[in-house]
Amino acid sequence: MSDQIVDSESSRFVNSQEFQDIKTAAYDNLLTRIEELGAEFGRWSRTAIQQFVNLDVDGFVRLRRIPLNENEVRLIADALTKELAGLGPLEDLLADSEVEDILINGYNDVFVSRHGVLQRETLRFTDNNHLLRIVRRILAPLGRRLDESNPMVDARLPDGGRLNVVIEPLAVDGPMVSIRKFRKDPLKPSDLKELGTFNDDLFTLLENAVKARCNILVSGGTSSGKTSLLNALAFFLPENERVVTVEDTAELSLNHPHVVRLESRIGSFEGTGSVSIRDLIRNSLRMRPDRIIVGEVRGAEVLEMLQAMNTGHDGSMATIHANSPRECLHRIEMLAGFAGFQGSESSLRRQIAGALDFIVQIGRLSNGRRRIVSITEVIGVGDNIITTQELYRHESYLDPNGEEQDRWVTLGIQPHSPKLQRRKQTASAAVTPPRRY
After folding, report:
1. Are 224 and 370 in contact, with CB atoms under 8 Å apart?
2. Which residues pair with 409 in a beta bridge?
3. CA atoms within 13 A on the CB side of 408
4. Which of 112, 140, 366, 423 has a beta carbon 3.0–4.6 Å from 212's, enabling a disulfide?
């Protein structure tokens, strides 16, 4: 009970204005000491910095006769150590394995997503300059610039996460920082099944579809789990195949022995040197890929993706932002039109139907859980409309105890894909011994 009281008092103190004021004054005093040390300070280990800060803060508090107890002095020293040797208030959030997204709307407005649920954090920065100082410390090793001439930055972090920052004059209420974290160890299909993302029947269908080299498009909204699902599907890929991934910002972490990772490049300030996803997909076709995986289809690259799927690169996969399988098909048509597709509407739809085998729709429910909400097979074109068949549909229901449960409803229709039929025939031929005459 006493530990809970101490933790509560510590949390109250850390989130108080008094803490911010004392920390700022102690930080200024530390900077003066660091200037005296010069280059020597840059060679210190984190342990040495921690000891230096502990002694300096203790002396600072005693000299100024600031009424703080030992625990409060330690909290300020820990915070200042993170400022000098780490990433300040962000350090604990970045180290928290349960944190998925960190969203900062100005220095004193921080939201964090855990298990799909977004909640406000008590954490805060001293001011916007403090927040910018931490952000620039993250960007410095990445070689990215953030200033008035370049007020918007999108970058990949060393651990695979993604950082997006918008500052004034584009951001009205201070720096807007969005950090998407990714797991060091990607979720396996068995992990997603255990988490309830899908059941045994969907597991079997997805495994067979990947191994049969079906072309799969994972569709869903923001933070619905598209990338995690794509990573999980990669566990079904045969180890003797060469996989090329193409992404705007490298997020995929495929558990496969032969992966070639390509990432697009933004042009310079003068507008030169840019390399688009479309360029990368076109080039990947010359790299002898067995499968091409596109992190997210959002522009003109949709034409190259469709052509790759239609010209011998079966088993390719991609993600796309859409709210349903039907909207997913409409979005592909729209993107192809924006990309300057020269053929007729009917020829485009035939190309889409010929390229795609399955659309896996994933969504984030109101309780934060991520579920596959639909698996739809693309069958062909009829009456100038792409025909589809929904194989599974997710439903939520309440059990006798009043708890929400998941189930996937099916009409019992088997997939029409000839790729799956060939796989079944090959598997049965391997099991059935040859007849002897």
Report:
1. yes
2. 393
3. 23
4. 423
Average pLDDT, integer, range 331-356: 92
Q: What are the C-alpha distances in Å from 45 to residues 50, 84, 321?
A: 9, 11, 45
% pLDDT > 90, the chain: 41
Reported as a single tens digit per residue, the pLDDT across 250-262 is: 788 888 889 999 9
d(CA 209, CA 21): 59
Q: Which residue has the tokens 């910002």?
A: 249
- How far the first Cα of the chain sits from its last, in Å, is 82
319 close to 295: Cβ distance less than 8 angstroms: yes
Cβ–Cβ < 8 Å for 264, 280: yes
Going by C-alpha positions, the residue among 334, 165, 297 that lies closest to residue 220 is 297
Give the separation between CA 255 and CA 236, rounded to whole angstroms. Answer: 10
> Dmax of the chain from CA atoms?
101
Q: Are 356 and 217 in contact (CB under 8 A)?
A: yes
* Residue among 273, 231, 223 at smallest CA distance from 250: 231
Sheet holding 162-166, edge to edge: 117-121, 110-114, 99-105, 176-180, 162-166, 152-156
Question: What's the rounded Cα separation, in Å, for the pair 24 and 246?
Answer: 44
